[in-house]
Amino acid sequence: MHRSVKAELRGNLLARLAAGTDRFPGILGFDETVLPQVERALLAGHDVVFLGERGQGKTRLIRTIVGLLDEWTPVVTGCEINDHPYAPGCAACKVKLARHGEELPVHWKHRDDRFGEKLATPDTSVGDLIGDVDPVKVAEGRTLGDPETVHYGLVPRTNRGVFSINELPDLAERIQVALLNVLEERDIQVRGYLLRLPLDILLVASANPEDYTNRGRIITPLKDRFGAEVRTHYPLRLEDELRLIRQEAVLTWTGSPLGNPAVPDHLLEVVARFTRLVREAPQVDPRSGVSARLSIAAAETVASSAVRRAALLGEESATARVVDLGAIVPAVRGKIEFDQLEEGREEDVLTHLLRRAVAETFRARLAGTDLSGLQRRFDQEGPVETGDLVSAAELLRRVGPVPGLGAVLTKLGVDGVESPGQAAAALELAMEGLHLNRRLAKEELPGRTVYGS
Fold it and tell me: Per the count of CB atoms within 10 A, which of 48, 277, 280, 343 is most buried?
């Protein structure tokens, strides 16, 4: 049975909706907002433009649409534009069908091979997207005007599939004009050729809703031809931000002699809260957005700081602690665009927001926990020095027995875990929380932190 691409997508999407299975694997935080719009657009057979700031998962979402195609589909063997054997479009395939009939040679193409993608750049040409005359074919003896002298571009080569143009406003306006026929008449025109090649394709594009770099715009006739416009967003809930970090951050280190670094949940929560605070900060340019890549890179940086300490000190395993959070600020500074009035204060702003994230996590995780035993320890025995090169065992030795530490571990979900690293991570969160709530003094020195000083 021959179905168009949009009919394939509609039928398979309806089947998944009826079965209650995941339609867009790996997409988090869009279930109640973006995905219903995408599903309506696909059911309507609309081409789609996704608008959203950087790092909102637009490209990831576009690529999951391919999973709604049939797993395998027949194509005419040797056809450059993937013609279906029952409905060939190019002249060469029509000749083959007339010659071979039901003996027409075909092969099967997987849905993963039916996706085309182009990052729009100012140097992209009509030939790249649509096609141009192939001088090699002309030199072989074919005459100009012969359709077989055409070298097809990326769009027709993705015929019977899904084609994506990322950052569409970056495409020169005269090049955008070449897509008008693709979206409306569903055919292509190559130079002066009398060539009408019907295309069976879903065209999707991504763009920034407000191109703060002033690189270009989507021309009005092209915008009008997209059937649906879908706005994406950053995770609305802290839980979605955490799920995204756990899904995307590379915290599994293949071949590491220390094994995988342990990053406690409360530290991942600090990273998630920090990212959300940066997005809301008035000092940050709201038009540029704060990519989800910031939280992913921050989590990976915290893990790498713990691994570095373990390697230098000879620890058997690596567990991240509060002292590792300081590595985040210089690592992610380049991912954030500040207001020009804040020039020179960028690191101070980020450091302040990181402290706020720790304080919020402390209150959320350890509110109501009796920490009087920890405070008495500092009142009676004096300050304790920690740092990114102080091992977990050494920190626990310096602090000594602390009444109530078991309750802290329970609140943080690591009760019963026989790990000095987890105990030290919990202890540092408690000490930092007491400091941020003005119940414990703290002095920061290069590479060292002294609590109770």
Answer: 48
Q: Two tokens at 91?
A: 């002249």
Q: Which of 110-114, 401-405, 434-438 has the lowest mean pLDDT?
A: 401-405
DSSP letter (8 states) at residue 212: T
**CA separation (Å) from 425 to 229, 376, 431?**
46, 20, 10
Q: In the prediction, which pLDDT does 133 show?
A: 72
Higher local confidence (pLDDT), 417 or 402? 402
Beta-strand pair 48-51/228-231 = parallel
Residue entry with tokens 């602390």: 402
Is residue 49 within a helix (H) or strand (E), and if so which, with residue range? strand 48-51
Closest CA to 203 of 225, 173, 183, 231: 183
Selection from 273, 269, 263 nearest residue 320 by Cα: 263
pTM beyond cutoff 0.85: yes
For residues 151 and 233, the model is more confident at: 233
Enter the tokens of residue 406: 């078991």
| Coil, strand or helix at 98 | helix
Q: What is the pLDDT of residues 345-401, one digit of tens each?
A: 899 999 999 999 999 999 999 998 999 999 999 999 999 999 999 999 999 999 999
pLDDT tens digits, 271-313: 999 999 999 999 998 888 899 999 999 999 999 999 999 999 9
**8 Å CB contact between 235 and 244:** yes
Whether 156 and 81 have beta carbons less than 8 Å apart is answered as yes
Give the span between the Cα atoms of 194 and 146, in whole angstroms: 9
Query: What is the pLDDT, as a whole number, of residue 236?
Result: 95
Domains of the chain: 5-231 (3.40.50.300), 238-451 (no CATH)
**Burial letters for 379-395: b for 16+ Cβ neighbours within 10 Å, e otherwise?**
eeeeebbbbbebbbebb
Structural tokens at position 270: 């600090």
Q: Which residue, 184, 183, 231, 173, is CA-closest to 206?
A: 231
Token pair for residue 154? 């990326």
Closest residue by Cα to residue 263 from 255, 253, 275: 253
Residue position matching structure tokens 């390697």: 311
Name the pairing type of β-strands 106-110 and 442-445: unpaired
CB proximity list for 192: less than 8 A, separation 6 or greater: none
Give the residue carrying structure tokens 């280190």.
Answer: 253
